[in-house]
Design a protein that fits this description.
mainly alpha
Length: 349
């Protein structure tokens, strides 16, 4: 019997011909079997890793942006008398950023996703922190990643990003017409031409949504909704408010160095709107670095000495950077609380 068992038992496979280690069993790190699509846990780890890498890249880009600036020109504004103007400038820029976020939210609502203000603020501001990386796609990638958690498809986020660009350009040119005569002389009237196009869009706002749907179909994709256009009107209104209020932050800084209030109002508001247009178009420089300062110095030299104009331009960059980082930090803390709560619940399970 023993001899018969020895003949019937299969011989072990030769060395090197068996299945590879781990074949057929779950992976120790991910818990997934070979060939099995990633589960929620694996996708969660991937999102965490990519989020950390993106945050590191943004931090490095911010460091290089701050490092390359010559802040010494802004010393005339670091005085006790200038503090109220600096605080007012920061408050005005925060208000302008909120208006920009509400404009972005309006476009998103027109495409079928009306996010709560808090959720929209987290997606918008954390995503916009990526603008200091060279190239515009970092912003939309970050926003798409964050908006996806709120149920917004990546295609919709990209559509909102692309539709927001002409809204920024049109409103920036319309408000920039305030500085047209002083900056461009007799050719300044050309800046009023975009106003006609803006009025047409306000009269027929549904065209914007239809254009987005048509573009999606060319890519063989489908948007959830084109909207009625009502939210597009609101988005344009918020963006106009953003352009006006953001220019007031520059006006406050110019007043701190003795610029005439009446004459400098139109120059600062219009000039800052024009620099926003240029910064949007120059995608190779993070947030229009250096180019924006040069344009502002040229415009502000109409109401201030060149040295003072340089101080205001540099101080404006500092105010914008400080307020943007402050809002982003607040939004990140707001996002970290629900994430920490979810981790605790998973740990209990």
């Amino acid at each position: 019997m023993n001899e018969q068992r020895q003949h019937t038992e299969p011989a072990p496979p030769p060395a090197g011909t068996g299945p590879p280690p781990g074949a057929g069993g779950p992976d120790r790190m991910t818990g997934q079997r070979p060939g099995q699509p990633p589960g929620p846990a694996a996708r969660g780890r991937l999102r965490t890793v990519t989020g950390c890498l993106l945050a590191i890249a943004i931090a490095v880009a911010l460091y290089w942006t701050v490092r390359d600036q010559d802040w010494s020109s802004a010393r005339p504004l670091v005085t006790g008398e200038a503090v109220p103007f600096l605080l007012a400038s920061c408050a005005l820029n925060v208000l302008a950023l909120v208006c920009a976020m509400l404009s972005w939210r309006g476009i998103l609502a027109d495409l079928g996703h009306r996010l709560p203000v808090g959720t929209a603020a987290r997606v918008y501001f954390i995503g916009m922190s990526a603008k200091y990386l060279p190239g515009p796609f970092w912003v939309v990638l970050t926003q798409a990643r964050l908006a996806g958690r709120a149920g917004v498809s990546g295609l919709t986020t990209v559509a909102v990003f692309l539709l927001n660009i002409p809204v920024i350009l049109l409103t920036g040119l319309v408000v920039g017409a305030l500085a047209g005569p002083g900056v461009f002389g007799s050719w300044g009237w050309l800046l009023s031409a975009p106003a006609a196009l803006l009025v047409w869009v306000l009269a027929r706002p549904a065209v914007v949504g239809r254009a987005a749907v048509a573009a999606a179909r060319l890519l063989r994709r489908e948007l959830t909704s084109a909207g009625s256009g009502t939210d597009i009107r609101a988005a344009i209104g918020w963006q106009l408010a953003c352009r006006l209020v953001s220019g007031l932050h520059l006006w406050a800084l110019a007043l701190a160095l003795g610029a005439p209030a009446g004459e400098s109002l139109t120059v600062t508001v219009g000039a800052f709107a024009l620099t926003t247009v240029v910064s949007t178009l120059i995608i190779v420089l993070p947030d229009g670095a250096f180019v924006r300062e040069l344009l502002l110095i040229g415009a502000l030299s109409q109401v201030l000495p060149v040295a003072a104009a340089g101080a205001v331009a540099i101080a404006s960059r500092a105010v914008c950077l400080l307020t943007e980082l402050l809002i982003t930090a607040v939004m990140m803390l707001a996002s970290a609380r629900p994430a920490a709560k979810r981790l605790k619940e998973r740990a209990r399970e």
